[in-house]
Amino acid sequence: MNRSVRRSLPLFLFVSVTAAPFVLAQAGTPPAGNPLALKAGPPNAARGAKLAAASCQGCHGPGGRSTQSGVPGLAGQVPSYLKLQLPAFRAKLRPSPVMQQVAGKLSDQDIVDLSAYYSAQKVGAAWPVTNAALRAKGEKLFNSGDAARNIIACAVCHGGNGRGLDAHGIASVTNLAPKYAGTVLYEFRDTPSFGGLTHPEAMRIALKPMTNADMNAVIAYISSMQK
Description:
- By secondary structure, this protein is mainly alpha-helical.
- It has a domain at 132-222: Cytochrome c-like domain (Cytochrome Bc1 Complex, Chain D, domain 2, Orthogonal Bundle), CATH 1.10.760.10.
- It has helices spanning 45-55, 57-60, 79-90, 97-103, 108-119, 132-144, 155-158, 178-190, 198-207, 212-222.
- Helix 1 crosses helix 5 (108-119) and helix 8 (178-190) runs antiparallel to helix 10 (212-222).
- The radius of gyration is 17 Å and the shape is globular.
- It is found in: Periplasm.
């Protein structure tokens, strides 16, 4: 497979967000100063549900449970992750013409409400297992790593169930769409540097010792973690 490496790719965390273009009544602009800062009232998951149904489910699926291998599901994603990624797209700090257009029409309150809605949804179904042995290898690497090869267990940060950690903005990777997971993991590993950005640089370091076979095993596991 031919994999292009994006130099200085500003991937902030692990799972990206893709969706079809849409227009909301209250379009937002990045706040002055820190473009990732949000100023909003309390989260309103019910309002987020209406926004999601009208604007996001065409790509991410109803309730954020994607059925497209190349599109990440949003159901059950930690809110702090989504509240960072959407402003990053909105400020054009993350590459994606579609998502930059989408997020550019979101107000701060829209982002907070969408994040509240998606984080409360049940994670999408596991993707089919096509190679049980490969998945078993991935499960071992995810949970235990391989000390002899300096491979850190993914569970150290993402948790044994893969559900991430909201307090630290660590994304959920449970039942992640496999084609999408492959794209992002290889980019994290093969990009030379992320310029000191903490989360992506940590991912690059963690994945660097892994071979392609290791990577594909982890992808097989995380895409089918929970039945």
